[in-house]
Design a protein that fits this description.
Shape: globular
Order of helices and strands: EHEEEEEHEEEEEHE
Strand content: 25-35%
Number of helices: 3
Radius of gyration: 17 Å
Number of strands: 12
Structural class: alpha/beta
Helix content: 10-25%
């Protein structure tokens, strides 16, 4: 059984981290079920374990949170769906590389429901879309923009952190960092691609495509943790 939880409004990042730590420990000990937790955060930057200080272009623009997830710098903010994946990787194949591939497939299958083709590129973390509407790059190839980021952490084979998909965030907010350390490509969103997709539309698509990649019956669960505080909008 996998609990499906959606939090309304903006969720404070540090509060979310504390909740994930506690839930991951409870899953590992068999006291809680696996879950997918869907949130939005106020504008902020996070630095993963591979983050380079030089990639933080504007450190005073938004709060910067150092985390223990994999990856480099990324942005979270309103209009971006963050899906925290608190899953028992031991139950889902006990293979970290396969688990990350499954997360990528989940994103790609979700985007496909909006007729958007997502791609995985060697040496570039996340999910990318081709932009034939933009000028051809210096390498003679079609331009590509990033639409989704992936960064996880494992503890006792239980994953936390997860994925983020750009529905309609303020794309200019990504300019305060070098997203994932990549300078040759841009960032896009479903709305930027010309699709009138809402957050609820994406949530429905995420849920529909989850079972095509992961095992487990989904059960709706209400959010009721008073220790997770609301974030501050900018």
């Amino acid at each position: 059984m996998v609990e499906w939880i959606i939090s309304e409004g903006l969720t404070d990042y540090r509060s979310a981290e504390r909740w994930m730590e506690q839930r991951a420990a409870a899953i590992s000990s068999g006291q809680s079920e696996e879950c997918i937790w869907l949130v939005e955060h106020p504008p902020l930057y996070t630095a993963g374990t591979s983050a380079k200080q030089a990639d933080l272009i504007d450190p005073n623009r938004f709060p910067v949170h150092v985390t223990k997830r994999g990856g480099q710098y990324t942005y979270h903010g309103p209009g971006q769906r963050v899906a925290y994946t608190l899953l028992d990787v031991a139950r889902h194949g006990r293979d970290v590389r396969l688990f990350v591939q499954n997360l990528e497939d989940w994103v790609i299958n979700t985007l496909g429901q909006f007729n958007v083709t997502g791609h995985i590129r060697e040496g570039r973390v996340g999910v990318w879309v081709e932009r034939p509407d933009k000028p051809i790059g210096a390498n003679g190839k079609v331009a590509e923009d990033k639409i989704a980021a992936i960064g996880i952490r494992l503890r006792k084979w239980v994953s936390f952190h997860g994925i983020s998909i750009n529905v309609d965030p303020e794309l200019a907010h990504f300019e305060g960092i070098v997203p994932c350390g990549i300078t040759e490509h841009g960032v896009t969103s479903l709305v930027d691609l010309g699709l009138p997709v809402t957050m609820n539309d994406l949530d429905v698509a995420l849920r529909a495509s989850f079972s095509t990649v992961f095992d487990g019956e989904i059960r709706d669960a209400a959010w009721s943790d008073p220790d997770v505080t609301a974030g501050t909008a900018y």
